[in-house]
Please model this.
Amino acid sequence: MHVKNPDNATFTKELNTTRNTGLYIILTTDEDDSRPVYISGNFNNWRTQDKEFMMEKIGNSLYHYKFPHDFDYPVELLYKFTKGDWSDVEIDKNGDRTENRFTKNHTGIQKEHVARWRKNWLPFKQSFLPQVQLISDEFEIPQLNKTRKIWALLPHDYDNSSESYPVLYLQDAQNLFNEATEFGNWKIDKKLAVMSEYKIGKIIIIAVEHADEERIKEYNVGKTVLGKGEGRKYIRFVTDTLKPFVDSNFRTKTEREFTGIGGSSMGGLVSIFGGLKNPEVFGKLMIFSPSLWVVPELKISPKKANLSDAKVYLYAGGDESPSLIQYVQKFQKDLIESEFVKNKSNINLSINRRGNHSETYWSDEFPIAIEWLFFQSK
Model:
C-alpha cells in the first residue's frame, strides 16, 4: 500500500477501505532520521531487520505498514518498533524501555507513537549496571612468571540470585570499561546494563588487563612476522589457571558451549589461537579486527574436537587497513573448508565499511556479538 501524501483525501479514503481488509499500523515519531523503521514481534521471531516488515515512510516523522489480509496472525500480536537493531529500539520520552505493544485486532487501524529511539544501546539505567569486582591486583601467571590485574563483571543481581552464568574471557581489560583510558573504551558495563534491562541474557565477563609495553609480545603466538611471542603460554594461563579459578569462585556454567574467549586487534589474534588450540574449552569466539597480518599463513586444524556446535563472531571495519576485510573473509573461508566449524550458520561475519580501528566501533559491535553468540538460538 503506497500513500504519497498522508494529508490528502486519498489517504483518508484508503484508511477507510483498509478497516476490513487487514491491520493497518500508523506510526508517528518525535525523533526522525534517515534510518528505516521496522516492526519486530512474535509473528517474525522478533527479527529486527526483516525487510518484509519494514515500514514505509509517508511524511515527516510518519510511517505506516499494512499486514496482508491473509496474514497468519498469532492470537495476540506482540510487537515493538526499531531502527533495525535492539541497540536502536524505541524508548519513552524519559529514555526508559517501553513494554511490548499488543493487539488482538486483525483488521482496522492501529495508531502508535514513539517518543525517542535508543542509540547504540544508550542511555542505560544505573540499577542494571554489572557488579564490577577486582579479582586481584596481582593475579599470578605462573606460565609467564608475571602477575596481572583481572576483573570480573557480574550480573547486577548476582548476589540475590542462585543462577549460574555463561562466561566470556576478554583481553585488554584497560579498554573495556575504564573511563580514563587514553583511547576510549568499549563501555561494556553500560551495554550489559541495557541488555539486562531488556532481558536479553546475563553473562559473566572476565577481563584480563594487557601487559602494557609487552602486550604485543604476550599476545603474539609462536614465530610470526613480529618475532617470537609468548601467546601459547598466555593461552595456557587462561585455560589452565584462570578458568579453574573462576569456575571455583563464581557461579559459572563450566561447559564449552557456555564459555567464550574474545578480544580486538592483537587481543583478537590471541583469542583466535585460544579457540583453535582449545576447542574443548571454548565454544564461543568473539573476534574483532584481528591482526591476522601477523600470521598470513594461519593453519587451522580440526583434530581436537567436532565443533559443529561452536559459534564464531567475526568483525572488521572497512576503514582499518586495506587488507583487513580480505584477511577476515579468508579466515572465515578457512574455518569452513577445514571443517573446524562445519555449519556455516555458526560463523557470523559483520563488516562495517565505515568502521575504523577503534574502541568506538568495537563498542558498537559488542552487545550484538554477545547476543548472537550466547543468547540467540540457531
